[in-house]
């Protein structure tokens, strides 16, 4: 897929991302994240005290994988660098609401947005340097 096709794939539907980071002992860690695309960046939020936030602060290189889990099994993997932003609740709210709207719909977006726009949350902005992707893996 082209870069534009990869970004369009990432924006489609409500697929979760599988974020890979590296723990202090060198082991990989992979966790699901809700995310949105913002220009060329992939955005997600996490608690500042979470393992993934600590991993990102120490080693910002990440990989994120998004699969279409039905035939013909398309996927996009992005490799990039995460910048963790410590924002105020008011600054976080538009991001948390936008992310929530994607996954819970417009009727509950504000509720989930407010729940997640708290001082303990941070915004991670991933600049994707390169993509690995395939269409119709089983086709």
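-> sequence recovered:
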């Amino acid at each position: 897929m082209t870069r534009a096709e990869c970004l369009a794939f990432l924006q489609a539907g409500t697929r979760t991302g599988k974020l890979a980071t590296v723990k202090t002992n060198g082991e990989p860690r992979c966790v699901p994240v809700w995310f949105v695309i913002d220009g060329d960046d992939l955005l997600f939020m996490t608690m500042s005290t979470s393992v993934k936030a600590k991993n990102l602060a120490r080693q910002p290189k990440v990989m994120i994988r998004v699969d279409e889990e039905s035939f013909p099994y398309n996927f996009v993997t992005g490799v990039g660098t995460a910048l963790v932003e410590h924002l105020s609740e008011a600054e976080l709210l538009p991001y948390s609401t936008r992310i929530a709207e994607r996954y819970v719909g417009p009727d509950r977006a504000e509720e989930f947005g407010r729940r997640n726009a708290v001082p303990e949350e941070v915004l991670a902005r991933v600049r994707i340097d390169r993509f690995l992707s395939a269409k119709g893996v089983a086709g």
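Residues 3-87+125-134 form a domain with the Pnp Oxidase; Chain A fold (CATH 2.30.110.10).
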